[in-house]
Amino acid sequence: MMARPDDSGYDPEGAVRSRTAIVRRSFMPLLSVPDVDAVLAELRPKYHALLAELIGFASLYGNEGPMQRRVLEEMSRLGLSVEVVKSRDDEHALNLAARIPGTDPPRHRSLVLNAHADVVPVDPASSWSHPPFAGTVSGNVVHGRGAQDDKAGVVTVLLVVEALRRLGLRLPGDLIVQIVAEEETTGNGTRALVAAGFGADGAVICDGTWPERLYHAHLGHISFTLRITGDPLAASNERRGVNPVYVAMDMVARLRAHVAALNADTVPFEGIEHPYFVNVGSFHAGVWCGSVPAMAELSVQMGFPPPASTTGMMETVEALAASLSPRIMVEPWLLMREPYRGDPAAPLIRKLQGIVQANGSGECQVMSITGYTDMAAFGTPNVCLYGPGGGRNSHGVDEHYFLDHMASVARNLALFAADWCSSPRPELA
Ligand SMILES: [Zn+2]
Q1: Residue 89, exposed/middle/buried by CB under 10 A (0-12, 13-18, 19+)?
Q2: CA–CA separation, 336 vs 314, rounded Å?
Q3: What separation in Å is there between the alpha carbon of 120 and the centre of ligand 1?
Q4: DSSP 3-state percent helix, strand, coil across the chain (nearest 5)
Q5: Can you tell me where the transmembrane regions are (predicted)?
Q6: pTM value?
Q7: Which residues are bridge partners to 402 per DSSP?
């Protein structure tokens, strides 16, 4: 039987009468694990189907609109009053936020559950075992771009909201749902929602972790395009001019040597052994073998630890380019993130780690990642990534997600939200 507000022994009005009463009420009286699991078992098929459906939206940067409109529909169905905040000047940059008001928000901690709707490009679709935008389910696995990163996160957050609603739980603190665009590029989606007043005392980003992992730190990233002009001569006259492909090759060699030197001289960052990297993600030049290309164009991403910064890294790239050839133009691209190191002992991380450990199958590790996240946007040490569970090949070919991880992550998030939003704010404790 599900716990209802009347029979759970939990009385939100009573809970706020004295601080000691609040402190004594840990999450156990609020939610029982068997009750949460029972609700999640009931809801699971619906949310697995929703995930498969959402993978069908090719919500790349600049095309997030249809996916976000579908998510908005689902949030409205859950009874949420959704605010749409734009992060770009087009009809696709829709960032969704909904506040589930607490019964005593000034005195209790608020929590954001955040996930992102945008996905990264597919290269090439023909090499995928399953169509990347079909959401094919085979057994416990759902395939497709965004299956793990981060449409499973979007669906898990909605599942938590519906489970809490079904359990009839009224939390003392506000619970805020954020489903954002642009996480894979600018990070402006989450920033826009926080600036619009949807920040909180703590935030959990449901993106990119296995069920027994939390992420508290990530590398910095820069991205840029190199445009190199050539002399478009006939192939037989190539000695008379500059082939931009050869300049590009020299520039890439310089970048790689620079990164190798930095790594040789750098201590590991939060367990990441070689925290600098460079990746050439695309390289286009010329039209056929009979001509020297007029232009070579490369897109490049680099990662770095603190104290390096996006500004410093871009200046270094520009200096390397200038010292090699005046033909190289460096143009910054969308992805620019400072490195981030949160406090692994922050109350939110400790609390969530304890809940995951108590309900999971082993030790919950607090780790760093070589990727990037929206953690810094929340402006609080009480932030981390958790969920939506395991899978493989995010940003690669044949991305997929393990569906049986969703319910255990959702259970831990529901237990955590109930606990966090029932705790007094630190200034009142
Ligand atoms: Zn992600």
Answers
A1: exposed
A2: 10
A3: 9
A4: 40, 25, 35
A5: none
A6: 0.91
A7: 141
Q: How far is CA 344 from CA 156, 214, 215, 281, 340, in A?
A: 24, 9, 9, 32, 12
CA angle in degrees (0–180, nearest 5) for 276-277-279:
160
How many angstroms separate the first and last alpha carbons of the chain? 34
Q: Residue 37's pLDDT is what?
A: 96
| Beta-bridge partners for 302 | 222, 278
- Could you say which DSSP state residue 355 is in? H
Q: Residue 207 region, left (φ>0) first, then alpha (ψ -120 to 50), else beta?
A: beta
* Range list of β-strands (E), 61-107: 82-86, 94-100
Contact present, 85 and 97 (Cβ < 8 Å): yes
**Spacing, Cα 204 to ligand 1 middle (Å):** 13
| Gap between the Cα atoms of 214 and 372, Å rounded | 14
Per-residue confidence band for 429, with pLDDT thresholds at 50, 70 and 90:
low
User: What separation in Å is there between the alpha carbon of 323 and the centre of ligand 1?
Assistant: 36
The answer to whether the beta carbons of residues 416 and 169 sit under 8 Å apart is no
Using CA atoms, how far apart are residues 63 and 94, in angstroms rounded to an integer?
10
The per-residue pLDDT for range 376-406, each reduced to its tens digit, is 999 999 999 999 999 999 999 999 999 999 9
Q: How many residues does the chain have?
A: 429
